[in-house]
Structure formats: structure tokens, C-alpha cells
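Quick sanity check, 2Fe-2S iron-sulfur cluster binding domain-containing protein:
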Amino acid sequence: MNASRTIPVRVARVESVTQDVRRFTLESAQGGRLPAYSAGSHVVVTMRGKERLWRNAYSLTTPAGSRDAWQIMVRRVPQSRGGSAFMHSEVHEGSELEISMPSNFFPIARCGAKHVMIAGGIGLTPFLSMLPDLAQAHARVEMHLCCRPEDEAAFRELIAKRTTGDIAVYTDLCDASERFGALLAAQPAGTHLYTCGPEGLMNGVARTARALGWLASHFHQESFGGGSHGAPFTAVLAQTGREVNVRGDESLLEALEREGVDAPYMCRGGACGTCALEVLDGEPDHRDFCLGEAERATGGQMLPCVSRARSERLVLNI
């Protein structure tokens, strides 16, 4: 399904969290309360520029019980596809936006005996709604954050306001296995591990966890597809023979939407698998966090929200 039902919201407040991170407070544009959602949820924000449209997913950072107003945080990324720049330069207090209903592909594992959370930079955002829930439940929590030195004070304050658990912040570069190997090896049975952040950090934590024998059911990842740009290629829609040129600064999903193709999506970050398409010919460049190694090896399907092509053309069963 498409996240087609939208909620009109008005930006009530814009605040600077760090030099390049802003927090947006959103209220219903029609008055009244916003829908309920669970901790770890995100919304997809539709941004209508003069020449193109963006749809980006952002975590809801307010506690899950918040219904009068929601907050999201956006880091301006100089080499992004343009959505973050739009949010920083074009969205102000009083602006009106369309957002999707909340979706959650990164929920808290309520059965967990302990919760270890590892975030990289702006990847801390989904944890900001999860930590108050866990604190209220008196759960055992460790929060580990890798960030730039200039962001440490602001990010540490955000976390400290929401948890009574242990907090560790790292501002130096380090291999994930070196940083977290001993930590993950020492966790008691029943611990659940959560990661969100840059691809390098997430992949490093995943490799370390697998090497230590962590169960897949106890390891959770969230990604919002920041690495979906790359070399241009052509997507051939087999059912009609139509060809869609995918630019380097847009995802395959965005290119399909630009051409009026009703392509399904939910998370837009390679986590849920809703947008999966069958590949009939060509070599996909898999960048998702959903397909297993065996599924990737066959090359029979791909997630167009983040994945691209290694070949010049991809033939899709659509």
C-alpha cells in the first residue's frame, strides 16, 4: 500500500538544536488532536518545491502519548537529494505541510530483558520517543551515541531528559567491532540491540553482532535511506515497455513517482519491504536492510526506495 492518507499540519515552532539540526513542532492544521502512535514511529513528510517534490521519512521525537503536537528533527545534509535543504530553507513557523499517518518498523521489543541502543549522529531521533517509554516501564537501558564533538552537548542533553539509563557518548572515529565488541559480548541473555545511523556504523554493528552469535530476532535496525543517490541508470517497466531515467540525485522510487507511476511505499528507508519490485533483467545495487543474503544473491527483487542499479538498465515487472 501507499502511505496515501495524509495529515495536514502547521509548523508551530522551528528551533535550532545544533548548527545544522533543526527541530520542527507540528500541529494539526485543522485543529484538534493528532492520531496516536507507538514509540519508534516515523512520518513521511511531503515537500513541494518549485520544480520537484520530495518525500522524506522523519522519526517522531515526542513521547508516544503526545497528541497535541509532534516534533521531528532534521539535519541539513549538503550532499543530500534536497529534502533536508528544503526543510531548512523553505519551512518556517506558520508553514503548512502534508505528512503521512505514523508507521512503525522500529518498535520496542517489550519482552526484552535489557535494551542496548546504538545511534550515530541524527540517528538518535527514533530513540527519543523510545527512551521515555522504557523509563516509564523501569526497563534496563544503555544508550550509546557516536557524534561530532560540536554536537555532543546538545545531543547528550536530549537523551538525558528522556532516560534514567546509562549514557555513553563517543566523539572519536573508531571501528564498530573495536568500539562495541566487548560491550555486545558482555550482554545478558534476553538483551535486545537497536541501531540507527550512518550505513558504516550500522553495518559494522551488524557484523559484530552476527559474529558474536546474536539472534536476528534480538537485533533491530532503522534507516532512512540517506545513501540512495548514485550513478544514473534506466529502469524499463516490462508491463508497458516504458523507460524511466533515474537521475543521480534521486532514488528509483522518486523517479517512478515523478513519472506518475503508482509505486507502493511505507518507510522509504529500505526497512519494511513494502516497495519491493521484481527484477527481470539487470543487476541491482542492494542498499536495503530488509532482504537477506540469499534473496540478494538471486537478484530477483529490489527495494526501489534505497537500492539502485549496477548495470546501465534494470527491467522491472511493473
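Posting the structure with no commentary besides this: The radius of gyration is 20 Å.
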